[in-house]
Amino acid sequence: MHSYCRKDTAASDSFGTILVVSVTILLALAVLLLINVQFLAWNMEQKIPEIFTITAVESTDEITGHLNFDSRVILLHTGGTNYQNNNLQAKFFRNGHPLSSSIVTMNGYDFISTHHYGVQWMGGSGCSGATWNPGERICLDFTDGTFHHGETIRVDIVDKKMDVIISRHEFLYT
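Below the sequence we write its predicted C-alpha cells.
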C-alpha cells in the first residue's frame, strides 16, 4: 500500500509545525506579560505620606534678631495618629544630599543624652512627652549656616522599630 493511501498519517506536516509555533509564541507572550507586570510593580514607588511637615526655617538669632542663618527647622505633626517619639528618628537632606547630622530620637529627654551631631538642641510640645500628637511642633536648631535661601530641605521620619520611612516632606527655603 502506498503512503498516500494510509489512514494513520497526519493531514499535513506544515499544519503540525504551525500549531507548535503558535503554542510556543503564546507561551512566550504569557511569560513576557508576567515579567512586565512584575517589573512595573517593583518600579512603582509608593508615595510616602507627609505626616510630619517642615513649616518654617528660621534664620535669625533668637536674642538679637540679626540674620545669622541660625537654621532652626520647625516640624509640625499634620497626621491623625499619636506616635511614640522615642521610636522615631529624623534624617535631613539638603538639595537631595544627606546631612551628616544625627537625630536618633524625637524625644527631647532622650535626645539630651545622644550624640546629636549637627543639631544644637530640640524643643517643642511634640518632643516634651512620650508621644508626638497631631498638631504639635518640634523645633530642631541645626548648626548655624546649615541651611540657606534657595535650598530644598527634605526630612524623612523613620520608625526605628520597623526600619521604614513613615513620613517624607520637602520644603523650599525661600
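Helices lie at 13-43, 108-112, 125-128.
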